[in-house]
Structure formats: structure tokens, C-alpha cells
Design goal:
This protein is an alpha/beta fold. The protein has 16 helices and 13 strands. The mean pLDDT is 91. Bound molecules: guanosine-5'-triphosphate (GTP) and magnesium ion (MG). The site of magnesium ion (MG) has 6 residues, from helix 9.
Length: 458
């Protein structure tokens, strides 16, 4: 348990109906009592915990706001500590004034994610569950939300713990064989060890496969629209968003910078990026735009290449197709309302089995097929794998990769029939790396890093 009492505004800044100031720690009740005067009785202490009480926050004689306040006694609270919450009027001023008073009365301003960090350090949540809290807050579609909720409820943790338990019981069996070789217990064999290791390895691989999906559900499928100038990239972006977000003109080189927007295609969150048309250019600003387009191209999960049906293929198009082909991609032949001059056969030949869709963004045709294709790629596992529990953060993925690499080493050592002690070291490492996912074997630096990504007041 912590000595310090922390406080923060837990609602988003801006104008709203209600703002909430949250206080957690040993002095939560004292601080609330100092700020808050109930309407009907003298003190919040005269009410049972968890009772929402109407009254005022006052600074001496000066009334600050009309509020509802509640005191919740730990450990059955979010942080597992004593918690007080004050619901004041929304807007920047009331909550800020109340927070300042709480700080004057002995609280310290909470760091990002510190409430959840305390929940973790007090054992109410494991680290994967704590990360899921941010997933819930940041969820952009219902599906992302469901995944975060499952993780918060321990879906991922359960899977990780199951593999850890397998490793632990294997370690126990090996240990017994080392410690009591002459006893009359069934001795473990290399074959048996190997069997267990391979089973754990497979479980880890299955989990690792979900990492791509987890990332996409959390951050959105990074989708980049590329193509020569004037082919209709910005028009496509606008059509998908159903709003005139990007400027569209018939002048090549209209889009100079990256335009990024979030989009929901049947539950799949997309982070879609419209780029500056890629071409050799002398214009400084446009050149910078083209460079940035290339950078986004490199990190995209999905590339949509737009071609102009009204023009014959040029060398730049062929070059772009070669790049795009190596990626998860869809080719759009746009402007099919015009007289078609492009050689579609050549495109099919270059692109092989990649999807090629004819569109006229101007007339609104082909967009449905584009959405169908994106959904299909996502769910067929072409872009990502479905699983019931998903690895959602880079941190989790990294720990899992190291656990896998250790178990692979254990498998090698076992195959070579090395002494049991050697095998044990690798299995123990794998066990420890898996523990990092749920926060059982992590250092303070990792914990600090996880919570520094949180919002204030959470
Ligand atoms: N005929 C026809 N014109 C289209 C279609 N889609 C877009 N256009 C037109 O093509 C021109 C260029 O469209 P943009 O969306 O600005 O093209 P862009 O690829 O973003 O161009 P840059 O930003 O310059 O790289 C505009 O005049 C659009 O109205 C289409 O399907 N058919
Ligand atoms: Mg544009």
C-alpha cells in the first residue's frame, strides 16, 4: 500500500455536464471531509461509505461548486485503496478548482495512469488487464472494444497462465528427477520433456499469431492510398469517409501533405492515409509530401494503389505496382466512367493474384467491392488472424517472442540430450518472459513505461 494520496481530474477537459475529481489513498476521506460540506449533515463521515451525498465544496467562506460526493473504502475499489470522488459541474474551472483544493489539503497530483498502476501494484489487475483499460478507452469500433473488454476480464491472461503452468509442472518433474534420481518415481525422459516443450511452443505460436490482429484492433488497420497525381486518391478518401475531408481538384499535385483519418468499415477500424501523388518533382513542398508518402507506404498494413483508367500505363505505374505487389494490397482502376485506355491485362499480369477492382469514385461505383475486399482480407487471416484472446500491445508481443525463443533453445538442448540443468535454464527463462506479459516478472522501468501511455486521471 502507498503512503501518498493522489488526485486528478478523471473526466476529459472541455465543456460537459459533469466533471469528476478522483482521490485515492490513505487520506482520501480526510481530504474529502476538508473540502466538502453535505447539505443535511455536518460531515461526510456521518454517512455510510459508498453513499452519494449532495452538498457543496467550499474554500473557507467561498462556495466553489454544488456537487455530489462519495467516499469508498478500500480494498473493494478501483485502486484497492480508499477512494473519494467528487462530481462537480463540467467545464474547465470547477474541476480544476476542486483539484487544487484537494492538492492543498494533502493530495499529490496523480501521474498518467497512476490510479490503474496502483490497481496493478495492489494486485487487483494484472499488467495485461491494466493495458486493456487503455484499450477500452481508446477503442474505435465495437469489435476493438469487445477485444479490450475480454482482455480486461482476463482472457489473454488466462491463456498465458495456462502455458506458464504447463512449463511449471514440467520444471517440477525435471526437478524431481534431478533431486531424487534413485527414488522410485516415474523418471522423466527426454522424449517426454520434448513433448511438453513442443506443446508449450505451439501455444505460444498461436498466441503470437494474434498479435497483428490485436494491434489493428487497437490502433486501426494502417491503410495508405497511393498513386500518381490526379488519379483520384483524395476523392477515394472522401468517398470512404463520406465527407469532403481532402481537397480535390483536377490539378495534379493537389495533396501536398499526409491526411490521416479514422474510419470504421463494418467493425474494422481503419486509419486511412491519403498521400501526395508520387512523382518526380522539383517543387520543394511537393517533394517533401512525396517523401512522406513513401514513409507511410513503408509502414502500412494495407496499400491501396489507385490507377487512372483513362490513361495508358506509364513507367511510374509499373514501378509502383512492383513495390505494391510485395505488400498486402488492392489495386483500384479508377475513372472507369471515362474511355478506358489502360491495359488491364498487363495489370493482372504484373499483380498476379492481387485484387483488382474497377471503380468510378466520381459515380460512386466499385466502393462496395472495395469494402468487401478489405473485410475479406481481414477475416480470411490474410491480414490478420482471429483468436479468442489477442495479444494487443507491442510489449506483450515482445515478451512472447522472447518466451518463444527461449523455449526453442530448450527444445534444441533437449534434442541434444544435454544435462537436465541446462534444459531447465531455458524453460525457466521462457516461464519468466511469459510472466512479463501479465506483469509477474517485470521491472519498474517496464511498469512505468506501460502506465506513461495512459491518460491523466485514469
Ligand atoms: N471522371 C472521373 N474523374 C474522377 C474520378 N475520381 C476522381 N476524379 C477527378 O480527378 C481529379 C483528381 O482527383 P483527386 O481526388 O484530387 O486526385 P488525387 O489522386 O488526390 O490527386 P493529387 O492529390 O494531386 O495527387 C478531380 O478532378 C476529380 O474530380 C472518377 O472516378 N472519374
Ligand atoms: Mg489528392
Amino acid at each position: 500500500m502507498f503512503d501518498e494520496t493522489i488526485a486528478a481530474i478523471s473526466t476529459a477537459p472541455g465543456e460537459a455536464g459533469i466533471g469528476i475529481v478522483r482521490i485515492s489513498g490513505p487520506k482520501a476521506l480526510d481530504i474529502l471531509d476538508a473540502l466538502f460540506k453535505p447539505k443535511r449533515r455536518d460531515s461526510i463521515r456521518e454517512y455510510a461509505p459508498r453513499k452519494m451525498v449532495y452538498g457543496h465544496v467550499s474554500d473557507g467562506d467561498e462556495r466553489i461548486d454544488e456537487v455530489l460526493a462519495v467516499y469508498m473504502k478500500g480494498p473493494g475499489t478501483y485502486t484497492a485503496e480508499d477512494v473519494a470522488e467528487i462530481d462537480c459541474h463540467g467545464g474547465l474551472v470547477p474541476s480544476r478548482k476542486i483539484l487544487e483544493m484537494a492538492l492543498k489539503s494533502g493530495a499529490r497530483l496523480a501521474e498518467r495512469g497512476e490510479f490503474t498502476k496502483r490497481a496493478f501494484l495492489n494486485g487487483r489487475l494484472d499488467l495485461a488487464q491494466a493495458e486493456a483499460v487503455m484499450g477500452l478507452i481508446g477503442a474505435k469500433t465495437d469489435k476493438s472494444y469487445d477485444i479490450a473488454l475480454d482482455q480486461l476480464e482476463g482472457g489473454l491472461s488466462k491463456k498465458v497462465k495456462a502455458v506458464r503452468n504447463e512449463l511449471l509442472s514440467l520444471l517440477a518433474q525435471i526437478e524431481v528427477s534431478i533431486d531424487y534420481p534413485e527414488e522410485d518415481i516415474e523418471e522423466i525422459t527426454y522424449e517426454k520433456i520434448l513433448e511438453n516443450e513442443v506443446s508449450a511452443k505451439e501455444a505460444m505460436i498461436d498466441l503470437l499469431k494474434t498479435a497483428g490482429t490485436g494491434k489493428i484492433m487497437r490502433d486501426g488497420l494502417q491503410t495508405v492510398i497511393i498513386g500518381k497525381p490526379n488519379v483520384g486518391k483524395s476523392s477515394l478518401m472522401n468517398a470512404l469517409l463520406q465527407e469532403a475531408r481532402a481537397i480535390v481538384t483536377n490539378i495534379p499535385g493537389t495533396t501536398r501533405d499526409i491526411i490521416e483519418e479514422h474510419l470504421n468499415i463494418r467493425g474494422i477500424p481503419l486509419k486511412i492515409v491519403d498521400t501526395a501523388g508520387i512523382r518526380e518533382t522539383e517543387d520543394m513542398i511537393e517533394k517533401m509530401g512525396v517523401e512522406r508518402s513513401k514513409a507511410f507506404f513503408n509502414k502500412a498494413d494495407l496499400v491501396i494503389l489507385v490507377l487512372d483508367a483513362g490513361e495508358a500505363l506509364r513507367e511510374e505505374d509499373r514501378e509502383m505496382m512492383e513495390y505494391v505487389k510485395a505488400r498486402k494490397s488492392i489495386v483500384l482502376i479508377n475513372k472507369t466512367d471515362l474511355e478506358v485506355r489502360i491495359d488491364e491485362k498487363e495489370i493482372s499480369k504484373i499483380m498476379g493474384d492481387k485484387a483488382i477492382i474497377r471503380t468510378s469514385v466520381l459515380k460512386g461505383s466499385g466502393l462496395e467491392q472495395l469494402e468487401d475486399k478489405i473485410v475479406e482480407m481481414v477475416y480470411s487471416g490474410e491480414i490478420f488472424q482471429r483468436g479468442d484472446a489477442l495479444v494487443t500491445s507491442a510489449r506483450q508481443k515482445n515478451a512472447l517472442e522472447r518466451a518463444l525463443s527461449s523455449i526453442n533453445e530448450a527444445i534444441e538442448t533437449t534434442k541434444k540430450k544435454m544435462p537436465y540443468d541446462f534444459i531447465e535454464i531455458d524453460i525457466k527463462n521462457s516461464y519468466a518472459f511469459l510472466g512479463e506479459i501479465i506483469g509477474e516478472t517485470v521491472g519498474d522501468d517496464i511498469i512505468d513505461k506501460v502506465f506513461s501511455d495512459f491518460c491523466l486521471g485514469k
